## 1
Amino acid sequence: MALPKVYVSQRILKEGRDILEGQVSYRMWEGEGAPDRDILLREVQFIDGLLSMPADKIDEEFFQQAPHLKVVSQHAVGFDNIDIEAATRHGVLICNTPDVLTDATADLAFTLLLAVARRLVECSGYLRRGEWRTWYPDMWLGMDTARKTLGIIGFGKIGQAMARRGRGFGMSIVYFNPSPKPEAEKELGARRVSLDELLRISDYVSIHCPLTSETRGLIGEAELKKMKSTAILINTARGLVVDQRALYKALSEKWLWGAGLDVFEVEPVPADEPLLSLSNVTVMPHMGSATLDSRGGMSRLAAQNLIDALQGRRPAYVVNPEVLDR
Ligand code: DGY
């Protein structure tokens, strides 16, 4: 019997390729960056399964071009690039890769928090430029973490892992989430508050919610104005949760102390993005899950979800189970 046909839209790690080998007949995009839309739309006409990346726009037009498609297995926990309703209408199963990247993403969020708080990048540049001539008591003063309040927007697995790190540093935890998380509250001494209260009382605000129609632009000028002028904003979730122009205004006019950003409204972020000119902003190129273990796990899981769906088993992580339960 012919093997199912699969397209992999970016080169995945060997852990994932090993799982695909012999189970499906696959082609993998080996070019620079993501494949152009016309390449993706051409490939999709012939395939049973797609192993997708957050850069792929998977919408109604895409599904219309894919008469044989049964599954889109996303190599990410986030799936805001996929029109889930359209997928369900077309009977296409959508899978994702949670859990394996929780700790790595929380690690990066906390790394950014500390880097901004202690002005790591600014100080490093000052030293490397040969400007360090003497030591003085008020040089490059930063912010403490102990006894401060960490406000977490989105209290799922990654938000809770961030809270765990905050607790380890002696911080109090508040969170804003659509549903209460009583077990995590008990474990972490966390308190559920309104978004307004969180913004008002937090010394650090870290964003961990998915990008949805409710969270798009959640943090705009009005919300940033509610934050303390000494506060730091961390975003490792999705760039579009924050209004980037408003954030630039807040940071350049100094009514917000600093920001650590791993995600942007447009990615890759253009070099002339105004935020990049600010010394109180620390940036990373969307690297939350970029560790050997996490990316290996994501590749393995995305490949296994795909194979399970194509071989008639229920994949471990399904976003639209209605397709299976029909
Ligand atoms: C995710 O898994 O959603 C990360 O942001 C990587 O894209």
## 2
Amino acid sequence: MEKDEKKKKRDFKETWYYLKKTYPYAKKDKKYLFFFFLGCIVLCAIQIVAPIFTARQIIELTNEAWQQLFWVTLAILGIEVLRNFVRKVNNFFINRFFYSVRKNIQLEVARETLKLTTETLNTHSSGVFIERISNDTSVIAEIFMNIIDYVTYIISAIGVLVSISFLNMTLFLLYVGFLIILFVTKAYAQKVLKKKRRLEREKSEVASGFVSEMVRGAKDIKILNAETSFLSKANDIVNDLNQASYDYTKTRRNFVFWNGNIRDLLDFFIILCGIYFLVSGQLEVATMIVIFNYRNNILAISDFLEGFLELIQRYTLAAERIFEVIDSPKFPKEVFGSKQVKKLEGHIKFQNVSFQYDDSQEVLNDVSFEIKPNETVSFVGKSGAGKSTIFNLIAGLYHVNQGSIYLDGIPVEELSKESLRGNLSIISQNPYIFNMSIRENLTIIKHDLTEEEMVLACKRARLHDFIMTLKDGYDTIVGESGVTLSGGQRQRLAIARALIQKTEIILFDEATSALDNETQAEIQQSIHNMQGEYTILIIAHRLSTVINSDRLILIDQGKVKGIGTHQELLEHNAIYKKLYELELSDEEKSKQE
Ligand code: ADP
């Protein structure tokens, strides 16, 4: 029991802790909150004064009862109209406040999500972030809107209780006892419900992650003819979520049922006491009427108590989940240095670099090489040799375990985010193209992009002629992930993006997919257009495409096994020679087929 008490205290402390953390997002709009609070005070006053007014009028009914009744009814109507009006104005203020606070928090979670380390993003389903950005932020914003509502109800409850204490001390004590018993039972219910709700939120994350994956992968699911198994998995996941939701709702309904019964029993008991006091002459009729009028308020308070505790529980859970993304070590953020370099020259040096992704095998082992500014260097080697890992390390997506990587002589981890990311671009095998027009996909990189700059970049990326064949030209919407573009076109659009970014270093992961020769030639041509002006690193999946590179670096099982031109390696390096011959014979075979 003592342990439970301590825990409960901790629960409230936790809520207070998160409220303090949430407040900065609401600070800007606190004027709305202030007006709302004023409205709530007026509502409170009506709540306390109206029953006294009604009772007094009823008691003072004289012979001219009809006339008096008319005025009393009119006054009650007036009070109700006033109450509704204040509520309407209050709703306006609180809605403005709610949407603004929710937006502030949503933007913050989105901003922080973009700072997460690649590893964190890789190891969590997208549902984790979608759910938190869309659902939990609403719950958080609701707290301010509801808490004031509840606080005013609590103030009016105290007002009502104080009024009762003046009227009859025994009934006052009974009502206080009544509220304490209800509070304890409801607090216990919320404690049980919190666990169930947390489980439900987790299941919900899994479900939305799966759904988003299913929608994004719909095309592949159809091609793989895997609809049935995907739907069956969806069925399991949704069942799981439904079970957790059902469990929460069922437990909640049970608590509502039992708490309702306890409430009604206590209420019945207090009424009995009231009748006893009336009959035994300890209470006057008028006082009894006032207390009876207040009774509705007390019963409402008991319901509000339930809502209040549930709100706190929902809020704490949502805040816990939101602040996990914003500032907890559970979701680590990328760390950058403070060295500012506006324009890197493009000198890259790996010095005895070793790296492993997790506790598994070492992926790079004592790798050293140097690339001069404006050189074009291709990395070759079998799949899984560690080529993409080299790119990931240069881009600061992961950090080395041993050794150092220098850009223009500065260790990568010492560069600021702008200096590093602003000076290099990665063109991946399957670049992510946003569901916007081609123009917007390019202006998102540079807001003040001129028409000439855009067309020039697309011409150099060998994409302009294709864009001109589209009905809407540069304003053509390319669909989610650029689905309406071919693999080669997506890569060329990414090249145009890199050209617009004007980064000194371009990391290019050549597509493995069998692009047709013409597309391949176009891409080769667009890279060729950049050669000599930029430092270009290419992961070459086909050796036939690297002949034009200044140098090749051969990676085998995480080690550098040769550096030189295509011709040099072919003559002096057995591994490269074998790799080259293997590719030739593969090409030969596919030609024969
Ligand atoms: P390549 O580009 O030469 O095909 P990679 O650098 O992609 O090779 O992969 C090298 C090794 O690292 C592979 O064994 C691969 O399974 C592993 N690997 C790649 N990415 C990750 C990751 N994010 N987490 C754990 N292991 C990874």
